Amino acid sequence: MVQPTKEYAEQLDQQDALRDMKKEFYVQEGQIYLDGNSLGLMPKRAEDTLNEVIDSWKNFGIDGWSEGKYPWYYLSENLGKQVASLIGAKPEEVIVTGSTTTNLHQLAATFYRPEGKRTKILADELNFPSDIYALQSQLLLHGYDPDEHLIQVKSDDGRTIDEDKIIESMTDEVALIILPTVLYRSGQLLDIAKVTKAANERGIPIGWDGCHSVGAIPHHFHDLDVDFAYWCHYKYVNSGPGGVAGLFVHEKHLDKRPGLTGWFGSDKDRQFDMEHTFTKAHTAGAYQIGTPHIFSIAPLIGSLQLFEEAGGIEKIREKSLQQTRYMMALVEEKLMAYGFELGNPVEDERRGGHICLEHPEAAKIAKALKEQNVIPDFRAPNVLRVAPIAFYTSYADIYEAVERLQSIMEKETYKAFPNERGTIA
User: Which terms does the record give in the GO molecular function aspect (predicted)?
Assistant: First the structure.
């Protein structure tokens, strides 16, 4: 049974097989960093591999595309093979490329094929704004009014989405489904298997946004017959700000011509033929639009090494669930009297990698926490997201963070701050 005590935290730290991984990261002394679900801390290994790739430019110039420790020409494909183990995919189904939104545009341009009365895109009302902007844009490009053709499944409580309601919305007017694996505010983990099965039975292509789960939660995209997925690497995978994203396309679709084509989507053996007839790659590499951003990819080389050394994504998930369980127990014991509510699902199978704390004065509290060297994430109007990261958050860190938060509430020091977000929440 989880015990909300410091002694229990110390006991868990002693038993933690991943406790030494914290040494692999730059962690500021005295700081408790709980914002890795927004931007992961810097792995020392990522710094090393970035410097190694910079050195290859210095030493090889143009020959860096084919020479050096990490030749650039196949770098995106090679890293895609490594990321495949995080998402349950075949190596040829994954490519490291683009940004989250660019990849969504690419995949929507490929899989959104309105015909007859099948013209609508199904999403949800709690999704991250960037996804919705992209879907609105895709509809407009096809001449459709987003107010009529973008269906957004409503939430009953403002926190979670009922999977049965999503399935009920899969009518014969829907041409594409885009959903988040984990809701970015509440941390709800959707039932990917159930929803994907329902979409497949209705013949509707379905894609998943894995930004808030990849690197924290094991996925099985290939076996679940997911059509496509896309995600960032700068949160739980710790590849750095603006780090290059990733996408998955199931092997059954690899014969498709990408909706948006570019030179680096060519068959690697034919790319330098320089023909004006596009000869696509036979892998997810076909979905690359532009030249790889080599220096933004380089940190990912080092960060992925740590997942392998940790024993794989299942080990990460096991610790993450234990950490969030412990944090919830502390919240129940120490913070509920001060007006906090848990906005995240409490069941392991429905919870992502972060805890959602709701409070009417959350913006003030976030500022007060930062002053106490605890780094949370605020989401308007009333959410504090706190993410204990398996790689670099100890159980003692979790205990101390809640202690500092309880002190802030008890002494009411948060009242000295304005209840409004900063430019960057």
Answer: kynureninase activity; pyridoxal phosphate binding
147 is in an annotated binding site: no
SS3 label, residue 351: strand
Provide the pLDDT for residue 263.
95
Two tokens, residue 69: 């420790």
Q: DSSP of 213-247, one letter per residue?
A: TTTTS---TTTTT--EEEE-SSSTT---TT---EE
- Is 100 annotated to bind a ligand? Reply is yes
In 338-362, which positions are buried (b, 16+ CB within 10 angstroms) versus exposed (e)?
bebebbbbeeeebbbbbbbbbbebb
Is residue 204 within 8 A of residue 170, CB to CB? The reply is yes
Cβ proximity of 226 and 248 under 8 Å: yes
The answer to whether 131 is a known ligand-binding residue is yes
Domain boundaries, the chain: 6-30+312-415, 48-309
Task: Establish whether 101 is an annotated binding residue.
Answer: yes
Write the pLDDT tens digit of every residue in 149-208. 999 999 999 999 999 999 999 999 999 999 999 999 999 999 999 999 999 999 999 999
Summary mean pLDDT of the chain: 97
The domain 6-30+312-415 having CATH identifier 3.40.50.720: the answer here is no
User: Is 228 marked as binding a ligand?
Assistant: no
pLDDT value of position 423? 77
35 is in an annotated binding site: no
User: Is there a binding annotation on residue 231?
Assistant: no
On whether the 48-309 domain is CATH 1.10.287.990, my answer is: no
156 is in an annotated binding site: no
Please give the C-alpha separations between residue 64 and each of 3, 68, 71, 268, 345, in angstroms, as whole numbers. 54, 6, 6, 16, 48
234 is in an annotated binding site: yes
Q: Which residues of the chain have pLDDT under 50?
A: none
- Give the helix/strand (H/E) hosting 276: none
**Shortest CA distance to 117 belongs to which of 147, 140, 141, 148?**
148
Annotated binding residue 128: yes
Integer angstrom CA distances of residue 84 from 56, 157, 196, 237, 356: 26, 35, 19, 13, 29
Q: CA 22, CA 307: separation in Å to the nearest integer?
A: 13
